[in-house]
Amino acid sequence: MKKIAVLTSGGDAPGMNAAIRAVVRTALDKNFNILGIERGYRGLMNGEVVPMERESVADIIQRGGTILKTARSEEFKTDKGKKIAVGILEKFQVDGLIVIGGDGSFKGAQELSKLGIATIGIPGTIDNDLAYTDFTIGFDTATNTVLDAINKLRDTSTAHQRVSIVEVMGRNCGDIALYAGLAGGAENIIIPEKGYEEEELCKNVLEAKLNGKVHNLIVLAEGIGGGEALAKKIQYVTGIEARATKLGHIQRGGSPTCRDRILASRFGYRAVELLEEGKTSRVIGIKEEKIIDLNIDEALNTPRKFDEKLYEIAEALA
Ligand code: ATP
Predict the structure, then answer these.
(1) What's the Cα-to-Cα distance from 297 to each of 59, 113, 148, 301, rounded to whole Å?
(2) Which residues bind substrate (predicted)?
């Protein structure tokens, strides 16, 4: 292993920069050449390759986004696209590629490994929707961003004695809603894994009001419906004023938390070690605080286990 390359792909997540920094500095520490590929697989096909030095990653550990930029590319999925990508990697004499992204990006890495490129994946996505790992880079920061919003909305909804719905990211995975909802003391957490009954929810809101609750915070994962429509329904059924706030892309930005920076540093370091050991088609994760790695297919086929206990706790404490 002499020369490795790193790219970020799919949705950006806070902590991706810390992971790039870890990959670059570990590689240099081990006397490898290290290249950065800009704009994910799209940039790879275009030959957007830049040399990376220690200074290239100076002053980025605290920054959200990704200095390598990110993109999605349908063309890369085609045989022609993958062939072009392999051609570029061969031209630059890249021995190993580290891909920071979500499940789609990992599928891309798996395809490249089938074409002879050694690949390692680092999970970077705010949704925490990769079942094989307990946490992904960016999830902790996004959850803290949501928590901050919940705290602020609680102030104003208490002042007006309103119902406040916070709509957060999470199409198939309700982890952001569950963690931020529990930490923020939300009265109701609505996530795709559990579903909900509108009538039952309205009944709960009304009962809570009658029992003296001065506010009612509902955290809603986007995958299960829109906040605006739910607010209208609650207001119509209960007669209590209800407002929805959609946090949107705010959840993707911001300075990564200490936890995300450390996770990114550990993942980045391990990714280079795996290439050094001659491994390929592996993804890195964390299980019970230990860094793990497994085959990409195995990782992507791991069935998701929902944290029932955490949900039970959130319900009991609401
Ligand atoms: P996020 O979870 O944040 O959305 P992601 O990595 O899952 O991140 P995707 O848009 O699904 O994001 O994938 C990123 C890119 O990976 C795609 O634009 C495409 O270029 C590549 N990719 C996805 N699926 C495949 C596949 N089956 N084969 C080859 N490449 C793929």
Answers:
(1) 35, 12, 37, 6
(2) 125-127, 162, 169-171, 222, 243, 249-252
